[in-house]
Amino acid sequence: MRCLRKHFSRKYLREEVLPTPFCPGCFNGVVMNAMFKAFEELGVERLKGYVFVSGIGCSSWIPSPHIKADTIHTLHGRAVAVATGVKLAKPNLNVIVIGGDGDLAAIGFNHLVHAARRNMDLLVILVNNLVYGMTRGQASPTTPEGMRTVTTPYGAYEPVMDVAELIARTNANYVARWCVANFNQLKNSIKEALSKHSRGFRFIEVIAPCITYVVRYEGKTPGQKIKELMKVCRSNTETPYGRIGILKAENKPGYLDRYFEYVRKATEGGKGE
Amino acid sequence: MRVEFLSGNEAVAKAALDAGLKFYAGYPITPSSEIMHYLARELPKNGGMFIQSEDELAAINMVVGAALAGVKSMTATSGPGFSLMQEGLGYAVMVEAPIVIVNVMRAGPGTGQATKAAQGDVMQARWGRHGDQVVVVLAPSSPQEAYDLTVKAFEIAWGLRVPVVVLSDEFVGHGREVVEMPDKVKEPEPGWGSEDYSKPPFGSDDPRKPPPLPPLGEGYDLLITGSTHDEWGYRDVHSFETHFKLVKRLKEKVLGNIEKVFMYEYFGDDEADILIVAYGSMSRPARTAVRRLQAVGFSVGLLRLKTLWPMNYDALRSYVKDARVVIVPELNLGQVVYDVRIVASNDTVVVPINKVGGGVPIYACEIVEKAQKVWGEVLEEALQP
Amino acid sequence: MSKNTHTQVQEHTIAIAGRGGQGVVLAATLLARAAFKKGLYVAQLQSYGAEVRGGAVVAYVVLSKQPIENPYPENYDLVVALHEAGVARRRNEILSSKAIIADEDLVRSIPKDNVIWVKIVKSGTPNMVALGIITAFIPAITEELRKEISKLWNAEENLRSFDTGIRIGVELLGKYTKLKDVAESLTKLVSS
Hints:
Chain A is α/β, with parallel strands linked by helices and about 270 residues long. Chain A has nine helices and eleven strands.
């Protein structure tokens, strides 16, 4: 019976761990769905040869334990560093990092920006939920000014960090930012980052406000929020969350291309020192 | 046999290459940088990967990533960098990543004295991480031993899937000596050579046997996490049983193989009255002190520890029990002396010699003088009515 | 008595004390490498500051026919002192050494009669002159050292200073009997 056919994404999931621990209505599901659609449309049947690396946070749970592939769940902030080690040790693997704004833009930003500077051959998906959602919704570097959280009970007063713009200013090959309301664009970006732009550093930021600590505090339901995001993000490129769209799409040699070129020089009688 | 004139740092780098090193990530820091310089030159030409990381946090986590991918990997650092690596080291324990970390000790805390030798990181190497865990700590005393113990470090790391710390110091690292190296080193094998990938990657019926480490990308769908996990890697951050079983196994995996891991050397008289317990660079003036004391008629011996953790307290006790006086010279304010105190009886006089900073060693004459003085006091006390 | 004991360990130490930038560590390394090539067991250690130039530097070389037991000697057989900074860093060790040859312009703190005063720094490249003086005590390594120095940048000038040093050394050996004893024990290492 057609109505009982399994959802296409099940083949990418460790079914034994379902359901996910995400709150009802959590936009992590949208990100997962977009990613799996991208794999489906790319004709990837089994994620052999893909390694997913994540740190600590709600979005870091997207790959670990849910995605049926090699997954490494690392320390808070260190996903990009571990992913770099994996990629350099086994250059033929596809290494994808999924993390949140706290993980990648706060505690792990040094690794993120240097991986981008190196044009390291990684795909990094930043699920920007605007707070530390897993641990009671403390303020993060992307928390909008004025927003009340447990660590900014009188309204956030620190200016916001625009992660995608910062990464776009580095040597990274591909940078895009989408809202969860831009489902097709997000899916296409992931597809591009795995096909047309499959080398160098690829960075996709997804604006996915935390249902529990952002949307609920705004007094909205997930449905109302996604409608609002559709309005804000589908018709404008300038939004309160920064510029939406593909900010950069290049195809420069990635870190590995350059490293192997360096090795070639070294072995051709390079003296060193 | 290759015979070369090498610094301890160069010897470490050479040993790592000989043991099959294919990945190095590191951040420059005195006095360990020469390890990195050597590998920056040699690794790319030998089919390996070298990366200068943005900081030490990155270095150790990159090394963990590479090790999990199935590649022999290492990083080297000193004092402040080693402090930054502690979290990553604990993660490596939890995911059972076979990594080697070299810490060329300098005087601390803080920035301390960057170019001056010290032995102050012993306790940190043992206990620097949060939570219950055991890593292996080896302490070379010379460039020769820096070579030998680095090879050994890879053997233990891959044999037991455990991080191994090579605790060198500035004297060993920057001192140059003649080093003899075999023409070929047998590349260390995972699980001492017996790996069955059908078995769970994070569990084992025999606590002495480490679980297999299937390489990434081969379709094993590995589930690796630094959170508490069951034998197949599924996160379980709630149950007592899962956590207790895991941390106990991680500890027993190492302690159950203590015969393979704990290395030491004894020099001097059997059942000596005066025992010197020393390690690393300072075990060498200690040896001279033993000879000088023997020459003037003392019964004396040197127990030289090559492994500082896990400590084989039974072995230590078997030497300490016969001694009336135990002298522990260390380039710190007293760390390994606590191990001696643990096994010493009330009748044994345990005397630390502590000195640190300025790049000044503990001279053999200082050990001799202390031994004679303390022995005199012990005799005097014994002769009192 | 004791079983596994070397009754005699013959280890000889040559030290150079100076200031960062004088090339003290380089000189000690070259000396050590030349001795190693002559088949000796060698240990070469140094103490220097974090700065490349200007700090106190002491470097020394332990030589033996057997594997080195202890590379941390309490005093040295021969010290060549190029600057006060290095002398101050290892004062006790230097003052209790068998023979001290010091630069008469830049070393101040050693009691006059303990020391043989020479113009070193003003005679050429300081570290190469020092190396030459030391080589006069162990002539057997002269050729190996010359080879090592030839590999250096500015080899010609360095070799000239090296030869100046040898001349100074030979002269001193003719003049002072206590230096002769040191030279004899060092030469014995390489000869047989």
